């Protein structure tokens, strides 16, 4: 017997890629459970599927930075802070990326590359270990939202957030809708999505000098003069990142509300006489609207 739940959850995360650097992503999760009927004549109660399995998935990968554990470009070591680790990553085509964060902000995937397939294998193993005996198999499908238009991948952290959004390198795959004088502008959408393709969005108030950043010895030695460093303390601990390429520093916290306003202000700064409406998404099916 099989039981299925489509659109069980959406996982928002970032991952390290040797070709692209740090990439924000959002995947929708579908699940099929196979097994024998239990005493309630069910494979598993829908309430348990929606609550327990979603919680397992969220704890494993949601709002984390996924690390390709078998990639030779990746180095991980204990930072000396309680339950914190250093991460150093050397992409092939852009500058190195260095982090120091609580270990709960990372998920190490046993693969050379973060893909839907490698994350599916990882999650299947994690979930199956926590299912009742009558459930014999689980089939996961991880899929991006079908977007008829332009979108971008962004990574950020929200230091004021009490939940997992505080992690300095988690992200989203997001579409955007832009209106200029009440008329939708596909050209502006395309331009903005190119600008923020695989972007890391940092808040200017989180910037620190290289002498202040906490990184591994390897990371400190490999910093260039062009690397910019950002750090903050949040409820889960101290977070640091040093990055050079695919970086934009914004004058606000990077909540979707303030990013919608930031985009609108950037557009109007170039054309002060025009009115703009920005419908900015944070992953799938949620976002904020900014008007100027």
UniProtKB/TrEMBL annotation:
Cofactor(s) the protein requires to work: Zn(2+)
Gene3D superfamilies reported in the protein's UniProt record: 6-pyruvoyl tetrahydropterin synthase/QueD
Record EC number: 4.1.2.50
Pfam families according to UniProt: PTPS (PF01242)
UniProt keyword list: Lyase, Metal-binding, Zinc
Domain of life of the native organism: Bacteria
GO molecular function annotation: 6-carboxytetrahydropterin synthase activity; metal ion binding
Matching InterPro entries: 6-PTP_synth/QueD, 6-PTP_synth/QueD_sf
SUPFAM superfamilies: Tetrahydrobiopterin biosynthesis enzymes-like
Protein name: 6-carboxy-5,6,7,8-tetrahydropterin synthase
